[in-house]
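All the exercises in this workshop are built on plain-text protein records. The record below serves as our worked example for the rest of this section.
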Amino acid sequence: MNLLGMIRTLLLLFTPGLIPLFFPTHSSTVSFHPGYQNHVAVLMYHHISNTDRGSAVITPRLFRAHLDILQKEGYHVISTERLARFLSGKDNVPPKAVVITFDDGYESFYTYAYPELKKRNIPATCFVIVKSAGDTKGSPGSRLIWKQVPKLTWEQMREMQAHGMSFYPHSYDSHYLARFAPGVPAARHIRPALAGPIWLDKQNRRETREEYEARVRADLLKAKEVMEKELGRPMDQFCWPYGVDSPTAARIARSLGYKYLYYTSRGLNGSCITGGRIRRINAGSPDITPEILIRKIEQYALLAYAQQWCPSFIFLDPALLEPACVALEFWQERFS
């Protein structure tokens, strides 16, 4: 570890008043917000509605406000395909690059997100639970919340794909929590179905390793085959349900041709990421105002910047960066 780098990083994180002294630019002026380059912030949304409520539901008005502030603050929205080319060393990305993703394949992506994105010529990606595609009524009585909401049709996806949107699998039919052991309460013994062997109630035993691998392979392969047939393009990206996999599941995904795997772990993505593991920032909660969204991106950008000086800080919680972000705003207002 570089001692000077550690000192500079600690001062940045915990004594933000010293930012102008330690991080000058090459010009005669001081950069009070470093922004970021050669990194990409991937935003995660789920559902948009004027009537539904939930921790992963935002209103159309809030989504429009998010897009507005991203444009106002100079962020550049790129596609997941360009992100993939960047990560493979075949393309570059603009400063303050952002990717917009939606999970689960809700019809609201077509009804509310797509018109706003198309109007602004902004690309986005939607990860689809493949078996549910075409379920335009939803299943109101289902215990799974995502099954209660109407889903996209293949016709809608093809229309949007022709105008810059892209679609990839979110599993074929494995977006659920499953028991991995007997016991009461059951909540202590559940996990995402693709994350490991599950408990087989009828046989009163857990899946074998071979059965687990066969189940994961069958689901991911069918999702890939169906989407490639319906949309006529290769499927090399995959989003894990609940953002959780296992080393075995990740190995199977790569063997099937999925090069880029999306998670819910937070942070920006640089060209040095390993295994195609893409981190995302949650933007789809109703309490994330436009200002909070920008603050969250800035926190992760600042963390990525700090890691250039001290790579050991890669696991820092972004909450520690709040004083530094406040200080950046102070210096910018003072000298602008």
Observations:
- The radius of gyration is 21 Å.
